[in-house]
């Protein structure tokens, strides 16, 4: 596994990371044993960057990660990044954001206990809390860095103005944001700004929640993604046409559409770290092969023609969730 730095002069991490969210039932049922085996297989393959959030399964995701790491994996051989701020009730419903300084410190204390570690490598508010100036949120993270409980500051789904304000308080190592063939929004303003500031990107949704793979051509009954605009009937048919065009290129290269989509994100620059989002070892293996692909200029042109920027039908989130995205303002 190649390595890169998270941001200019930042910590060395693997060229791709593993996103653990799906292991806590976000996209349907998950099997804990397979999830743990997937985390361990990723580490065995050289992945060091592991992405979780305290609200993924209300702590379940962090406990799972602790179980995976417990069996003989040195703490300093992995880079654990944790999102906080998303508030959920006992039924799992999202009930808002809280990124106040007190919540930063309290959430971190619970996270450290669940993970069974003394520090997290990167701590990041999942969304901008509209009631709390970003300076206050990142100021509290900076205090936790000074105290040794956190190593680096990250942000998630934030726009240029907020990123600059945060960076002025404490250097931001990485921005986590959705980026894929079907979600190119960051190319306009956010990517140039983070590159200017030397901030890395951990890219999520690189398969547009699985849409850029043959696996979700048909969603199982009850799959929560059916609510996402891109999977709704009126848009899904159009998006499957884009997928079919990508599959035609993939077939010719004897790879899968998912592999092309992942290789495309990786080809955007060493400062962009794709987060592989799977809870299964077979799909992890498929994704890892994608990192070995080199896309020629002809390949990239063909991919662009198959899935042009802005060709996707439907927003990446439901309207109420888009409204919470500072990155979309
Ligand atoms: N900061 C944020 O706001 C934010 C938001 C969302 C996610 N994230 C992070 O980013 C990570 C990745 O996000 P994501 O899960 O939405 O990304 P994604 O890679 O676009 O989608 C993952 C989905 O695709 C499926 N999939 C993966 N490989 C596949 C294949 N080869 N064929 C068919 N289906 C396949 C997965 O199912 P299986 O698991 O069954 O393979 C899963 O349902 C998350 O785990 C989380 O850590 C961050």
Describe the structure.
This protein is of the alpha/beta class and 329 residues long. The chain has 11 helices and 12 strands. Strand 1 and strand 2 form a beta hairpin. The protein starts with a strand and ends in a 7-residue tail after the last helix. The mean pLDDT is 95. It binds NADP nicotinamide-adenine-dinucleotide phosphate. NADP nicotinamide-adenine-dinucleotide phosphate is lined by residues 19-22, 27, 51, 83, 126, 156-157, 176, 204-210, 213, 215-216, 258, 275, 277-280, 283, 286.
Keywords:
alpha/beta, two-stranded antiparallel ribbon, binds NADP nicotinamide-adenine-dinucleotide phosphate, globular, 12 strands, 11 helices, 329 residues
Question: Care to count the β-strands?
Answer: 12
Low-confidence stretches: none
Oligomer: single chain
Order of SSEs, N→C?
A: EEEHEHEEEHEHEHEHEHHEHHH
Present as ligands are: NADP nicotinamide-adenine-dinucleotide phosphate
Cα separation of the termini: 36 Å
How many H/I helices? 11
Which term fits the overall shape? globular
Q: What structural class should be given to the helix and strand makeup?
A: alpha/beta
What characterizes the major β-sheet?
Answer: 8 strands, parallel, barrel
Radius of gyration: 19 Å
Strand order of the largest sheet: 3-4-5-8-9-10-11-12
